[in-house]
Amino acid sequence: MLPAPYYEDELVQLYQGDALDILAELGPGDVDHVVTDPPYQTTGTSWATKASSWADTMNTAHWFTTWYRHVARILPEHGSFWSCCNWRTLPIVQRAAHDARLDITSVAVWHKDAIRTGSPRGLRADHELIAIMAKAGFRITDRSAGDVWTIKTGTRKPHGHPAEKPVALPARILELIQAVPGQTILDPFAGSGTTAEAAKRRGHRVIAIEADATWCQTIATRLAAVPAPAHDRDSP
Question: pTM of the prediction?
Fold first, then answer.
């Protein structure tokens, strides 16, 4: 049984708790699409310190596989799953998708177009990735859509979350999904509520999950200030 929502309005249900516990309570048909930015749980690899070995990376993949399997179970045949990652976590995503029997059908590159510097031994980190896992009935109607998106970001995080993405990123994903108002978007790692805000602004229903009470309060305050689209407010 799902717990009582931490926050709820006409479109949004926000749950505080462990994503694995709450995902286990969702069933087929409860959501239409999943758009999320999970914790990457990786650090740099160093042979000198034996930090973040390949074995550690694959151990992390086991955790990803657990919640990927929940996603695979609840997604309908018209559904899609968009999971943010980077070059370090892409092997984890590939392993988890394989074990959860999810097909990675594309990988989008988010070009951040930001002013920053690289490390002495590496290049400036100017992009992140979004792995797309689509069920058989999912279709992107814009066949000209490319897999490199330039969406500007900066060093300032508007809501203070260290991994906060610009609202334009999930908005771009939702634009490609072409979900109709009233369909449900799930974000099991809601952070500061960026995906939830983008989905609510488009009139989608939202199920958001966040473990940290402080961030749940941030999400609740943020989403309470976002009005539902007029067509949703006027619907019975």
Answer: 0.90
